[in-house]
Amino acid sequence: MKFIFMTTGLALASLNLACAQQAPLRGTVLDAQSQQPLPGVTVVLPSTHVGATTDANGRFSLPAALGVHEIIVSFIGYNTQNVRVPASGQPLTVRLEAAPVSLQGVVVSASREQERRTQEPVAISQVSPQLIADTKATAPYQLLNKVAGVYMVNLGNEQHMMAIRQPISTNAVYLYLEDGLPIRPIGIFNHNALYEINQAGVRSIEVVKGPASSLYGSNAIGGAINFLTQRPTPLPTAGVSVQGDNYGYRRVDASASGTIGRLGLYAGGYAARQRHGWQDYTDFDKESWTLRGDYSFSAKTRLVGMGTYNYLNTQTPGTLDSARFYSRSYASNNRFTNRVVTAVRASLRLEHDWSPAQQTAFTAYTRYNSTGQLPSYYIADVRANGVYQSSNGQVNNQSFHSYGALVQHRADLGFLNSRLIVGGYFDYSPSTYYARYLTIQKDVVNNFYTGYTDTGRYIDDYKTDLYNAAAYAQYEVQATEALRIVGGLRYDRVQYNFVNNLSGAQTTKKAAQNNVYNIAAPKLGLTYALGPAQGVYTNFSTGFQPPETSSLYSSRQTIELKEANFKNYEAGGWVALFERKVYVDLSVYQMEGRNEIVSLLQPDNTTQSQNVGATRHQGIEYTLTYAPVSEVNFRLSGTNARHTYLEYSEVVQGKNRDYAGNRMVNAPNWIANAEVYYKPRFAPGARIGLEYQRIGSYFTNTANTKTYAGYNLLNLRLGYRLPQPAMRGLEVWANVINLGNALYSTLVTANQYGTTYTAAAPRTVTLGLGYTFAAKARE
Question: Which of 123, 199, 471, 664 could be bridged to 587 by S-S, CB 3.0 to 4.6 A?
Answer without folding.
Answer: 123
